[in-house]
Amino acid sequence: MLNLAEILTIIIGLLLALVFVDGIRRSIRTRKNKLKVDLVQPSAPEAEESVDTFVPTNDETEFLDELEEPVEDIPILKGHALIIFNLCSKDSETFSYATLSKSLSVYNFLFEDKGFFTLRDNLGELLFSIINAKKPGNFLEEKSSSDIALVLDPSKTAKVVESFDLMFSVAESLSENFSCSLLDENRNLLTKQMLDHMRDESQEFQRQRLANVS
Q1: Topology of 53-213 in CATH?
Q2: What is the pLDDT of residues 159-190, one digit of tens each?
Q3: What pairing do the DSSP bridges indicate for beta strands 109-111 and 147-152?
Q4: Rounded distance, CA 158 to CA 86, Å?
């Protein structure tokens, strides 16, 4: 028969064996989890890019003129991220150079040679643009339209959040002045949830810009 000392030795040995086995099991689990993370990480940027990428409709491709390049030379499907508000009226003659110039008179704006408006800060730096959302995409030669788009290109301004807030304020003001619908970039009625999402996007664009600069 085993004495007390031998029984205690066996029990301690069993406990040590259990601790050792548990340690091995935890180590294997940690290595598996690390492997999963390593496998997931490379695909994350691609997924994020697919959310931010704007794919314009046929009537909206002309807004790319603001980049001062021919439309056909711009890779519009290759990750060009924009923030956009649309305004839509039932009257095809609602928006024109004359009517928009009058409504924008309280802001610092320019009417560019290519026929669209740009709003700028006190130093003349670009904040966002207002374009004819229907072909031919401009307001030259007294053209008018029922649809306009307010377009913010985060790569063109260092004040992304400030530009977004001003762009929404202008969009809201124009919507009231012209009694027209305020829509999101997909031409759906703008909801508070979508507005919050768009502002979050602008904050992320600014954070990325600051990170790149630093």
Answers
A1: Cell Division Protein Zipa; Chain: A, (3.30.1400)
A2: 999 999 999 999 999 999 999 999 999 999 99
A3: unpaired
A4: 23
Query: What gap in Å lies between CA 135 and CA 117, rounded to an integer?
Result: 16
Q: What does the pLDDT look like over 54-77, one tens digit per residue?
A: 334 443 344 444 333 333 332 332
* SS3 labels along the chain: CCCHHHHHHHHHHHHHHHHHHHHHHHHHHHHHHHHHHHHHHHHHHHHHHHHHCCCCCHHHHHHHHHHCCCHHHCCCCCCCCCEEEEEECCCCCCEEHHHHHHHCCCCCEEECCCCCEEEECCCCCEEEEEEECCCCCCCHHHCEECEEEEEECHHHCCCHHHHHHHHHHHHHHHHHHCCCEEECCCCCECCHHHHHHHHHHHHHHHHHHHHHHC
* CA dihedral angle for residue 172, residue 178, residue 181, residue 185, rounded to 10 degrees: -60
pTM: 0.63
**Residue in the structure block whose two tokens are 């031409």:** 187
Written as one letter, the residue type at 44 is A
Q: Which structure tokens are listed for 86? A: 């649309």
